Each structure stands twice: as C-alpha cells, then as structure tokens.
TrEMBL record:
Official protein name in the record: DNA-binding protein
Entries under Pfam families matching the protein: HTH_22 (PF13309), PAS_6 (PF08348)
Record domain YheO-like: where: 12-116
InterPro entries: DauR-like, DauR-like_HTH, YheO
Domain Transcriptional regulator DauR-like HTH residues, every copy: 153-210
Domain of life: Bacteria
Source organism: Shewanella violacea (strain JCM 10179 / CIP 106290 / LMG 19151 / DSS12)
Amino acid sequence: MRELSETDHAILKASENIVDGIAAMYGEHTEVLLHSLDVSNPSITKIANGHITGRSVGAPITNLALMKLNAGQDISDSYFTKSPDGKTLRSITIVIRNAQQDAIGLLCINSNLDASFRSVIASFLPGQTSQADTSFSPETFARSNDEMMQSSIESVRTQVMADASLSPSKKNREIVIRLNELGIFDLKDSAQIAAKGLDISIHTIYRYLRELKT
C-alpha cells in the first residue's frame, strides 16, 4: 500500500455507484463494500447492506482482504467466511487499479448463505421495496448493433402505437423523437434501418431530425 493521489481518490469515489448498483441488484442479503488502500487509512469508504457484518464507513480493512490483495489475482476465487455473529458468507474480492496499474482499492462482495431461500427470492421480486420499479423494461440483449437498433425500433413503435393520445399522423414522428432520445441516431446506418423498420423514406427520418434540431 502507498499514499493515494487525488486522482486515485477520484477513481474510488466514482466507483461508489458500483457498490450501490450491485447491492440494488442482489438485495439485502448481499453486502457490497469499497476499501481504500491508502496507507494512511486503509478502510471502508462505501458500504451497502452493512448489517450483514455490522460494519460501516471507516471500519478498517480486514486481514483476509489484505491476503487476497497479495495473492496476485485481481478477481479472487469465491471463498467462504463467517460474519461476527456467525453467518456463513460467500465472498469475492476485486482489486481496483489506477491507470498506472497500482492497486488503490478493493471491491468486496459478501452474500449471506444463511438467509432463508424465501427471503432471498423475495428480495429479487418487484415491489419489495419502495424504490423498486415494478414495470418490466423493454430491454433486449442484442448480439449486434443492427439487432439492437431493430429491437429498439420495435419496442418504441409498440409503445407509441398503443398511445391513444397520439393521432395516427403523428406517430411516426413520435417514434423518431423517442429513438433520438435513446441516442439511436448516433449509430452508423441507423437512419436507414429506422426508415426500413417504420416503412417510411429516409428523407422523412432526416426531416424529423432536422425539425428536432430547430
């Protein structure tokens, strides 16, 4: 470990969203935390679901985390540990490096294996928290840009066509507006693909886009 630079601290600060994102994905039975490797204060700088081990920001780095750092793997194999109150945890440690490839932090994930199956499944279901989005997103897992654009066009078209507040004459324009908001038209050949998918001319697509810019 060494003294971290301002840039190193900025990298760790930017990584805090990763902690919240993983915790939001896997629920209350998975603890996610970020360790700073600053030699003057090697400690937790961000933690989600700290109730699993009873830790909070400022808690010191663990001896096992240091062992994983020195093991030579940037992503450790999963391993099993015990929380202070005896819960069995399945854990993984990921090394965070700066542009010079110096280790500046550790991202640690600890899942509580003693949580009941019912409780774990409940944490994955929509509507279990006040912030949960209970709607299903139109996300598709495309294998190419063309496939992604085509699926995006179809998803947006389905939404717009179902909107009774829009007159039929305005629906194609609304589809182009929404696709533009998604950034679709920043991609190569997107206008041609959209024109074909909407069964309108590419000149109409460009006209809608020009109108948006003005």
